[in-house]
Amino acid sequence: MKKILSFILGSILALNLSISVANSAAKEVRVAYFLEWPSPNLEDMQKKNFAKALGVPVKWTNFTNGGAMTDAMLAGDIDISYSQGLVPFINAVKSNAPIKLVDIAMEYGMGGTTCVTSNASGITKANATELEGKKVAVPLGTMAEYVFDESMKVVGADRGKMDIIQMDPEEGAAALVSGDVVMACLFGGNSIKAATAVGSRLLTVDEARAAGILGIDITSVTDKFMKENPGMLRTFIEVTHEANARYKAGKADLNSMAKASEMKVADMKDTLSGFKFLTPEETKQSMTSGNLDGFLKGMGTPGGSVDTSFLPL
Amino acid sequence: MLTQLVTILIIVAVVGCILYGRRLIRTEKVDAVFGNPERAKGGTHWVIVGTSAILMLWLYYSWDIAKGFYPKSANELCQVAKINESLLGLKYQFPIEEREFKSTSIIKIENKNLKKIANEINGSSDLNDQQKTILVSYINRTSELIPFLTSEELMEMETKIKIKEMTEEIKLLSLNFQKKDYPFETDAEKNERQKLIDEQGGWGITTIDSGTGTIENTIEIPTAPQTNKGLKFHAAAAELKLINDQFFKLRNHNPQFKNTIKQLKDDIKAYRKNLDDNQEIASDYAKNIVKIARRIEFASIYPPNALNEMQAAIIEFDELQNKEQAGLRLIDILLFPAGTIVASGPTCSEQGSGRWLPKPSDTFNKFILMSKPSVGYKNIPLLWIEMVDVSKMIGFILPDWIADILPGEYPVHTKDGIVKENFKSNVLKVVTGDFKLFKVPVPYGHIWDSFLRVFLGLVFGILIGVPLGLFMGLNRFAKGFFDPLIELYRPVPPLAWAPLIISVLGIDNTGKIFLLFMVSLSIMIISARAGASGTQLSKIHAAHSLGATKKQILRYVIFPNSLPEILTGIRVAVGMCWGTLVAAEFLAGTTGIGFVENVAKKYFQYEVIWITIFIMGLLGLLFDISLRKIIDKTIPWRGKG
Q: Does B595 reach chain A within 8 Å, measured CB to CB?
């Protein structure tokens, strides 16, 4: 009896003390990023320039969605998430996750995230109200859900009357091909390619841009890392913006970028053509009063989750 | 209120049951020796202790006990967290929680980096000697920058004064902080604060928008200070934040340093400009050297003893605020296990076990809300009843082609635009369920859908698996023919089929039920086969000599003999089906418990996740209990032969 009691008390004590004390000295910086989602700073990742600039090793881990990035940040395994979607970030902040938005990775049109209707269904922008009562595949809680919502507003269809099925992009594309759903909203080059083989975009890239549907990917960071290593964070963002400037000047090493994002150079160029990398000034403008600000307010994000002080202005 | 009551009840129950148990051991006369199952009989009081322990763990680690007994503690801890947040930036400069000064560790790292780059340059075969000398000279000049920053004599008077000022500010804050009426709040401020307090509500989920039926996460912890103690910390945190920001902006740059680094940067820039394209490596090295120089420029490097007073002031304040916390500290340690309240900008949140383990009271509230058919989850109730016309079921069961194969044609509209029904079209109406009969209540909702999927998967598995298993146990052909097939697919984890299911069977129920059918089928075949081949030969011989036919032997000897195995197989299959169901519903779905959990995960709705886990546990238990009842009824001889 005494042994059992002491064991229980001991384990409770051990559990209570196991408050995470990881990485306070930042012996390395752990960054999350996406594959198949190219950006100029991946060249620096490939060439280990970040480690040189930050002075400590930088460990890059690839993720499949922004929600998982948040999970990893909360668990203390990731310090900086690069190109996290804005919607997963907002969901995380709404549930009081201690993370901050410090930079905009890129803004993009509907090139990379879009809704595709199947040709067999005969539904286009003109008769989009026919979507009501039918099945559509949407990866909930991602940028694609936002694009879906906005597109439905543009075409005048009622989301509430549709049968929305939670599906990741790859599965959504498969369901569209098999005819189970009449529309699939997806992101990622390969999924969109598979979907557009049997369908067409509900809104073309230009139409979406005209309607103001815009995707924003951001750089988010844990509060802890931000407080403890402000210098490193600043350098990280600076190197990223340097890379963006280099890309704009046409001096980027596309092969190295393609290798880092595991894409073919041609496919990557295609994806990159839809991206807009902002200068630090544009970023600040977007964060304080522009697109990003409007987006955050539109989604009812609690205030205080954006910090512009790390931008290299 | 309820939490307090429950907590006390649990403690009383646990203590009472343990005392009862000990008394029972003393008074009870047990003749049974160790190993006799009699010794394990009874013991309801231990059941109570076990359940209470689980509940207690939940209450404790979700910090519900803290919420029940000290509802204001979270708000106060939030204010303390604000201080910690403000102090973090200042503290990490000093060896308070770290081992060394930030300046020291930066110098160490950068010296190492410089040495590394120097070694690389010297060992590089792509650089000529002239380049090497130039680059090494840059490295030396960079490392010579550091003494400019660490020299006491060179330190600017202005910087010294600023540090002194900040130190004084911290000291003043420490002094004020000890006063009882700090932060000297005026009546107007107090009213303002009171208004904020009234607006923000209490700790935990207090406002649920049941009007629109959304299950959203709400503000966890009220941020405006509710108590005088909290106010003290709140005010001090605000002051510290200003000091922190000031210090963060302060740079120990003296004119000598500024000139030297400017000279170095310009030199390197000029040098890089003069290099042509095939000397890119030298250019890269030069660029990296500049980066290190800039890091040194931006880092807060100070002379070794320049910040001593400031460090002392910070430590003094830190000790003071720890002392001021007093009982709160104890609450934090004891009632907020495995985590604490963390401030992040203007908001506070629970970080640690309180975050992913929702409070039982919150979970219960949310469950009640979700159970309301008008709320549900994603517009579908958890479990509710819908009035469905019997005609719909008839239409579902009868195949539509019955109408097609009847002689005659479907009616065509007349000139007047009237459609006249004929016999064939009337039959079509019947087989498609397009008529009115009486309505019967039919359950629907997430729970029902999940239940139905498991049930159907199981039923199909039993219907096909049991006869096939018996056949395989009794017949050489069947055994030989089906064995390789079954044995090949049986070890494959059912989820391995999942990626194929969507492509082949689509996203509707068919695919999910098929997946569950695959799970139950192999288990049923194995158990039925084991049951059939395990029948005692003497029993078969006995029946045979009494003149039983093959059919009778199968019906009255072999089948009852394999029933225990089959029923155990069903119990196993139920468990496996539940396990697979969640994953199947993760895949693609619009309803089902697994779907609810999957979507809740995407929105970080921990309460909903736990609710689904409990529902699944309870339903699984329900399945198992009913199966045990069936087993007791159908094979009362089990374990008695």
A: yes
Find out whether A46 and A256 touch, Cβ atoms under 8 Å: yes
Q: Which of A175, A180, A304 sits opposite B347 (nearest CB)?
A: A304
Q: What is the ipTM of this complex?
A: 0.70
Fold of A113-210: D-Maltodextrin-Binding Protein; domain 2 (3.40.190)
Q: Which of A18, A91, A227 sits opposite B89 (nearest CB)?
A: A227
Instruction: HSE, CB side, 13 Å, CA atoms: give it for residue B372.
Output: 13
Name the phi and psi angles at B340, rounded to 5: -165, -175
φ/ψ (deg, to 5) at A146: -65, -45
Look at residue B372 and tell me whether its pLDDT is greater than 80: yes
Domain B445-634, CATH homologous superfamily name and number: MetI-like (1.10.3720.10)
**In degrees rounded to 5, what are phi and psi of residue A277?**
-95, 125
Chain B, 560-589: which have a CB under 8 Å from a chain A CB?
587-589
Q: Which of B273, B240, B70, B274 is nearest to B169 (CA)?
A: B240
Any idea where the domains of chain A sit in the sequence?
27-109+214-298, 113-210
- The neighbouring-strand residues paired with B342 are B349
Give me the residue from A15, A92, A167 closest to B588, CB to CB: A167
- Render pLDDT for B43-60 as a digit per residue (tens, 0 to 9): 888 899 999 999 999 999
Angstrom distance (rounded) from CA A122 to CA A130: 9
Q: Is B108 on the interface with A (CB under 8 A)?
A: no
CA distance A65 to B418: 57
Rounded distance between C-alpha atoms, residue B103 and residue B225, angstroms: 36
- Length in residues, chain A: 313
Question: Closest by alpha carbon to A92, among B95, B355, B7?
Answer: B355
The neighbouring-strand residues paired with A137 are A165, A184
**CB–CB contact A231 B113 (8 Å):** no
Query: Model confidence over B220-278: pLDDT tens digits?
Result: 788 888 888 889 899 999 899 888 888 877 888 888 888 998 999 899 888 888 887 77
Q: A–B: how many Cβ contacts below 8 A?
A: 133
In CATH, the architecture of A27-109+214-298 is 3-Layer(aba) Sandwich (3.40)
Distance CA A105, CA A276 (A): 9
Listed by number, the residues of chain B in 180-219 with a beta carbon closer than 8 Å to a beta carbon of chain A are 216-217, 219
Determine the Cα–Cα distance for residues B330 and B80; give it in Å rounded to an integer: 13
Residues of A in contact with B502 (CB under 8 A): 171, 174-175, 178, 180
Neighbours of B604 (CB within 10 A): 24
Contact in structure between A198 and A118 (CB atoms under 8 Å): yes
CB B588 within 8 A of CB A171: yes
Quote the pTM value.
Answer: 0.77
Two structure tokens written together for B577: 């089906």
Residues linked to residue A96 through DSSP beta bridges, in sequence order:
none
Q: Is A228 helix (H, G, I), strand (E, B) or coil?
A: helix
